[in-house]
Write a structure and sequence with these properties.
Blueprint lengths: L15 E5 L5 H11 L4 E4 L26 E2 L2 E2 L4 E7 L5 E6 L5 E6 L6 H18 L26 E2 L14 E4 L3 E15 L7 E15 L3 E14 L2 E18 L2 E12 L1 E5 L5 E4 L3 E17 L2 E16 L6 E4 L5 E5 L1 E15 L2 E4 L2
Parallel strand pairs: 1-2, 1-5
Antiparallel strand pairs: 2-8, 3-4, 5-6, 6-7, 9-22, 10-11, 10-21, 11-12, 12-13, 13-14, 13-15, 14-17, 15-16, 17-18, 18-21, 19-20
Helix pairs in contact: 1-2
């Protein structure tokens, strides 16, 4: 036994004609409605104007009182229901239902679903249930609704009947997408080769090779900050030059898909020393180099897991540094006065980088 509220109409599903507007696939809507409201008829705008006669399997039947089943006393047959489903230019869906007594019910939502036909079929089923239950809100009588005017029975277009299907309707699952982590943090390692440019010209060229290790923090806006240590070494005969550079860097990371372009500016402090071998080893050093560097690193940022990425890139760097006591570029000479090493001045470097970044992700519902 079912209880129906006063004024709530009983809607005959076989007397419903659904008019499909532009932007929706009638075949996909036909299949979606078969799962939720078996027996409803689908009408495509390309077939002409829909009519209440289209909602009957026998559109020209007669009643016992001698009047047409479709029309009695100039009014449309009780239970005749026209439904208009359309997709607006903004992408939102709009459903309008006109009952045989002239009442109109409208439901629309601005969010654009991924599968509009399934979303429209589900929403129509809920709206029809609310109308039958008396809980749906009726449109004001003066409001205009975008429903096609009922046509005469003689111009009833061809309709397709949705066959009943014993498949229970299932609610649409809201897909989720991972939200980018607010912060990513991880280590970086690399192989370095450096070249001196400009005076002293006699020592221009390779000034050493080595490696680097550092840590970096990246915000999802692209801001990056990091600290790293770089070691370089060079040798000439029995002399060994060692340099250890500590840098604090700030910059920006531009990431699109798997491509990443990182730009950084760094402040440098670089101690150095020379080791003499042959007989007794001797260690010589001096004040550290001070300077700054700019770098550009194109590369790939590859997702290994929802919260883990592998960064691979080739850094190109230009640095300027000076000896804290002697000024710009300084050349180091051996015991005979021959120049053997240069430190400071303008240097270019190439670095093959490999880094891992960790972050914490949270999932969010997609509209």
């Amino acid at each position: 036994m079912s209880i129906q509220r006063d004024g709530a109409p009983e809607i005959d599903r076989a007397a419903i004609v659904v008019s499909v507007g532009a932007g929706l696939d009638p075949d996909a809507l036909h299949e979606a409605l078969a799962l939720r409201e078996p027996g409803i008829h689908i009408h495509d705008d390309a077939q002409g104007e829909p009519s209440c006669g289209s909602s009957r399997r026998a559109p020209t039947g007669r009643q016992d009182d001698g009047t047409d089943e479709q029309q009695q006393g100039g009014q449309y047959a009780p239970g005749c229901t026209l439904v208009r489903i359309e997709r607006e230019p903004t992408g939102s869906l709009r459903i309008a239902v006109r009952l045989g007594d002239g009442r109109v019910f409208v439901r629309s939502w601005s969010a654009t679903p991924a599968e509009p036909e399934r979303a429209a079929a589900t929403s129509l089923s809920h709206l029809l249930a609310a109308i039958a239950d008396g809980t749906a809100e009726q449109e004001p009588p003066a409001a205009e609704t975008a429903l096609p005017a009922p046509a005469s029975p003689t111009s009833a277009p061809e309709v397709r009947t949705v066959p009943p299907a014993p498949v229970a309707s299932r609610p649409l699952a809201q897909p989720t997408s991972p939200q980018p982590p607010r912060f990513e943090f991880g280590p970086t390692v690399g192989l370095v080769t450096a070249f001196g440019v400009g005076p002293p010209v006699a020592l221009a060229g390779s000034v050493g090779s080595g490696g680097l290790v550092g840590v970096e923090l990246r915000h999802r806006s692209g801001f990056i900050a990091g600290v790293e240590a770089r070691g370089l070494g060079a040798r000439a005969d029995e002399l060994r030059l060692a340099r250890l550079r500590v840098a604090v860097a700030l910059g920006h990371s531009f990431r699109r898909g798997r491509f990443e372009l990182r730009t950084r500016a760094a402040f440098l402090v670089e101690p150095w020393w020379v080791v003499t071998r042959g007989g007794a080893a001797r260690l010589q050093s001096g004040p550290p180099l001070l300077g700054a560097a700019l770098s550009l690193t194109p590369g790939l940022s590859l997702p290994l897991a929802p919260a883990v990425r592998l960064d691979v890139g080739l850094r190109m760097e230009a640095a300027v540094s000076a000896h804290a006591a002697a000024g710009a570029a300084v050349q180091l000479v051996d015991s005979t006065g021959a120049p053997v090493f240069r430190i400071g001045g303008v240097e270019l470097a190439a670095v093959a980088e490999l880094g891992v970044r960790w972050g914490r992700t949270r999932r969010r519902s997609s509209p």
